[in-house]
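Forwarding these from the shared drive since the link keeps breaking.
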Amino acid sequence: MASATSPWRRSCWLLARLHANEPELLMALDRPDIPLHTNGSENDIRCQVTKRKISGATRSDTGRQYRDAFLGLAKTCAKLRISFRDYLGHRLDVPETVGIPSLPTLVARQA
């Protein structure tokens, strides 16, 4: 990385530390398929945080589990580019809904 010297002691220490850790810092270049940020993971839970802030909270643990399950299903359907309404309608045997395979099957197809 940088091996230049600096007149300031702290800068020299930081540059030496960067130079010493260069292999670990550049390891990310070996795996370009892995993102360097966590925006995807943070985006996955953003709708749950927003819902919690708006509604305050659920009255029971069961209510929280149901809310989290439905938000998770909706987010998974969005990632797979299928309608959550159609998916849920098919699972509940609503007449005239589009036949949609199970989520594990769809996720396996995406991989």
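-- next protein --
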Amino acid sequence: MIGVQNQARSLNIVLGLATPRPHLAKVLRLTGLDHSFPMYGISSPGRDMARVGCGHAATR
């Protein structure tokens, strides 16, 4: 996932996770990777989860 994220960033593409399962969201939070991958469709304190349509897909 990190490699794909790095490639996406080099192409100015935002790679996010849509409604990750609770255990995956927890692992990402514990490892600090939640700051590297925007997560949509979950409630997380201190984060704005109302964002939709980010990245290249929204411009098509």
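The radius of gyration is 12 Å. Confidence is low (pLDDT under 50) at residues 44-60.

- D.
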